[in-house]
Amino acid sequence: MQIQTEDWGMVDYMQAYQRQRQAVDAVIAGGPERLIFCEHPPVLTLGRMTRPESFLFDKEDIQRQGIQVEAIDRGGDVTLHAPGQLVVYAVMDLNVRGKDLKRYLKQLEYVAVALLKDFGILAISVPGKRGVFVDADKIISIGIGVRKWVTYHGLGINVSTDLSLFRFIRPCGLDVRMTTMNKALGKAVDMQDVRTAFTKRFLEAFRS
Amino acid sequence: MTNIILPELGEGIAKATVACWHAKPGDRVKAGDEVVEVVTDKATFNVESPASGKLVSIAVAEGKDGAVGGVLGTIE
Q1: Residue A96 above 80 pLDDT?
Q2: A49, B39: Cβ pair inside 8 Å?
Q3: What's the pTM?
């Protein structure tokens, strides 16, 4: 199966969201699956399961500090995107890969753990807490949407994200600290290297 | 009458929460329209109408859990 890789660079969240919907329509129409990379200016996105207590500040206060707040059709609670976080949108056709949401989410977690291992970071997925952790700190968030068994949304890989931006929320409704690849390694990781390594691991997992 | 059924979503998934109905009772829908969105763990899933007609009833309201294989609503 053909998987087309794209890099959208730094792009406004809602603009990327519209492009993502078009990509979903194209895959539903029989086009190639897509693996899309991008980064977003600071934005808090509210998944369908967002609880009010996940916000530690008034939304208006947060927006006044230049951070967008957007409600979207993704599973999960609130999450943050910001520069330094590699956002991965995977538009995959589960009609031909087995209609199993849990299996697909596990595959994404497996790819995420393998990616971090490539960089010498020992990470784990925790049952009941979707995402990937280094010790108790969350490093990669995962959340997907599905239309006609075609997936969208995906992962947020914190490479060099400004962690102070997470102070506004309880990420994913959890009382967890966030971390980055830079912090875990104590040195700067190149975003392009992360994209390259992720692509390799992702294609290994899904090109079969 | 045709029921809108919550489909199998994957191994070990027995239920999902209705997040949002895209139609209300009385609305006309077409077969294949996404009529209701459910959430499970970290995924949202759009359930399609199995038939064209009028949505006559909603069995599982927003915020409530539906069982896999169970009725979410009815089309007439």
Answers
A1: yes
A2: yes
A3: 0.91
Contact criterion met (CB below 8 Å) for A50 and A85: no
Give the pLDDT score at A65: 87
* pLDDT mean over A14-42: 97
Separation of alpha carbons A172 and A161, rounded Å: 16
Q: How far apart are CA A51 and CA A197, in angstroms?
A: 34
Q: Is B44 on the interface with A (CB under 8 A)?
A: yes
The secondary structure of residue A164, as a DSSP letter, is G
Q: Which residues contact A127 (CB under 8 A, 6 or more apart)?
A: none
Whole-number Å distance between alpha carbons of A194 and A121: 12
C-alpha of A11 from chain center: 15
Question: Which residues is A129 bridged to in the sheet?
Answer: A126
Stretch A85-112: mean pLDDT: 96
Let me know if B63 is exposed, middle or buried by CB neighbors in 10 A (0-12, 13-18, 19+): exposed
The ipTM of this complex is 0.91
CA of A47, closest CA in chain B: separation in Å? 9
Give pLDDT tens digits for A133-172: 999 899 999 989 999 999 999 999 999 999 999 888 876 6
A101 reaches B (C-beta below 8 A) = yes
Positions of A marked active-site:
172
